[in-house]
Amino acid sequence: MSEQISDHQVHSGGRSGLLDRVQGMLPARFRRGMAVVPVVRLSGVIGAVTPLRPGMTLSGVAKMLERAFGTRNAKAVALVINSPGGSPVQSRQIYLRIRQLAAEKKLPVLVFAEDVAASGGYMIACAGDEIYCDPSSILGSIGVVGGSFGFQEAIKKIGVERRLYTAGSHKAMLDPFLPENPDDVARLKTIQREIHATFINLVKQSRGSRLKAADDVLFTGEYWAGETAIGLGLADSIGDLRSVLRARYGEKVLTPVIAPASGMLSGLLGRRAPGAGSLALDGLAGLPDDLISALETRAIWARFGL
Q: 3-state DSSP call for residue 288?
């Protein structure tokens, strides 16, 4: 039998001919020489929006990232980002995981900003070796924001007395039902400056000499449209995913979208995988939480006119 196969191989072009026919039977992404660039979409507010509706987190996107960087024949990994920001901790952890995987697999990372890659969304975009955007994309917002409300006068009018018991002189710092304390505000601003400094250092390390403006322009929390962001060095070029990848890797480049895992149980509960969107419970029981979450999410996007 082995002699018959050998003779057949000789008459059909040898062993390479047999391998070519076997390759032709495989799915396209497994064929030798086929350029593959897996695509991961990172969308939405980063971190917890409400306890029952987490936004984009490292735990929610880690598996997608690992699958993308582990894709056979991958020439690069493309990240499509559409996020107004959120948790600085989750933003930085996602950034670090992307850079770790890129170093392990020795793959370049190409980032494509959609409507907005701002604040924490821009921090994640900095994980890219190159950042592409649309002329109308919004990028930047390299700053830190926090806010609250003051209800102390309102509760007085309706006859409510605030009773709060703490151990620790600053445990009730910035309580919205107590008058604002200037010392507490000063402490908060110190924390914000520390977080801001971490953000600035990350951008400088990632973008390096490509940054084209002074710190007092780039790091005020301001944001810009695509062309201006490129001029400042916050992005590299105007470009969309399909055009850029075809120009670089050929017309037949494969771009499989790496979707989040969705088990049968999550489907029955009406949930979506965290990190790819939001996680919500169907039915009236989740309505108050959904409403609050929707308002908070809307407020974050509205900061960028979206």
A: helix
- Please tell me whether residue 109 adopts helix, strand or coil conformation: strand
- pLDDT tens-digit map of 211-267: 999 999 999 999 999 999 999 999 999 999 999 999 999 999 999 999 886 654 444
pLDDT at 214: 96
Quote the CA–CA distance of 234 and 231 in Å, as a whole number.
8
How far apart, in Å, are the Cα atoms of 174 and each of 146, 159, 238? 11, 22, 43
Cβ atoms < 10 Å from Cβ of 138 = 25
- Work out the burial of residue 147: count CB atoms within 10 Å of its CB; fewer than 13 is exposed, 13-18 middle, 19 or more buried: exposed
> In the block, which residue shows the tokens 């660039």?
37
Tell me the average pLDDT of the chain. 81
Rounded Cα distance, 151 and 11, in Å: 88
Highest mean pLDDT among 60-69, 150-159, 174-183: 60-69
Query: 282, 56 in Cβ contact below 8 A?
Result: no
Tell me how far apart the alpha carbons of residues 233 and 207 are, in angstroms, rounded to a whole number. Answer: 8
Q: Are strands 223-225 and 237-238 parallel, antiparallel or unpaired?
A: unpaired
Cβ neighbours around 172 below 10 Å, total: 15
- Domains and their CATH numbers in the chain: 1-28 (no CATH), 33-145+201-302 (3.90.226.10)
First to last CA, the chain: 69
Q: What's the whole-model pTM score?
A: 0.78
